[in-house]
Please model this.
Amino acid sequence: MIINNFFEHQIAYLLILQNFREFSNGIFDKFFISITELGEITIPLIIVSWIYWCNNTKYGMFILWNWGLGFIVNEFLKNTACIYRPWILDNRIHPVPQALNMSGGYSFPSGHTQNAVSIFGGIAVSFHKKFLTILMIFLILLIAFSRNYLGVHTPQDVVVSLITGCFILYFLKKIEKWAEYTKNADIIILSVVYLFSLFLVLFEHFKSYPMDYVNGQLLVNPDLMRLYTFPKIGIILGIFTGWFLNNRFLKFDGSIGNSNEKLLRFLFGTIILSIIFTKGTDFFMLLMAKKYAMFFSAFLSMLFLTFLYPLCINYIELNKKSLQKESVKQ
Model:
């Protein structure tokens, strides 16, 4: 595919990294595959679950806000720009094969980098510890670089994700402060999130996509891009719905309990969450079309994380306090 001048220097940079990989016989490939996996869903979800259930619920929710909003902003930009992957832009680019499993759809901007800024940037902004902040920034930049090193993203892909991720962090910090002092702010925020999610579904359904073929094969299938919008919308709606319910009715505090109780809480909750997240789609597909099954699986996973499981924890804590009071009376 012919590339314009704007991409020439970026492709040249990727070729330099590729030449280094080939010269070194891929000695760092496994390392950067491991690094790039930190920008996937699984590890960030485990980290934020611990923070939300067992450390600081307010911080955990702020990080989840960033993660959820980052998902749909990234999705909107991807399906608006429709920029192809580096190896499609220039056939001299040969990505690390293992990285291709984590690199479907359009290239711009980088979803892994966006996830990294959302989760690890959210941790840095929330906890305000110098060493932790430096570590999180280093990790974000390392994940961003890994996407270039593996040959699955151009520099502009990761740079734009870094910029949008930082903007979302700043924007949501302002929204969080505004919500603390504004009556019914939770209703307003939840309504805006639902309306924006509806807009995204309609936008991606009706917009036109490039239909470019190479050797008779469609480069990016628009139907798949539309399909994978649904779980991402399920994630953000599950997060903000859970936040609304917790804010209105539960007021869960993840700091309750001793270390052993927190560890058991985390392990038990993570097992259930992983089952819902990985098996939920298969279950819901018995009842509905795949896109809706993916949506409800993602929605239920986030609702479980933010509200349903905390509801169970509060119920157990309440019963434990009641038993302690009865034993004292006796």
Observations:
- The mean pLDDT is 92.
